[in-house]
Amino acid sequence: MVYLINVINFFVSLITFLIIIKVFLSYFMDPYHPVRLWFDRVINPMLRPIQKIIPPIGGLDISPIILILVVQLLGRLLTSLLSTL
Questions:
Q1: Global confidence as pTM
Q2: Is the separation of the CB atoms in 19 and 67 below 8 Å?
Q3: What confidence tens digit (pLDDT) does each residue in 52-69 have?
């Protein structure tokens, strides 16, 4: 059970890290750079449902922040459920 909790925590940390890197790359890297395209292919499918519900506010896209919160919340819920078993 501890192994599964560690795997969940790893993936939550990995997704959070990838989201943060994607946001930083969007400010500094050409949109057609292969590295940025890879991050977009990985993260954008998770961001699109949030972007459909919550549009940019004053030109600021807050969907990455919401995605990080959702991923963190789901990770904590899963690990707490598994730890009670």
A1: 0.91
A2: yes
A3: 999 999 989 999 999 999
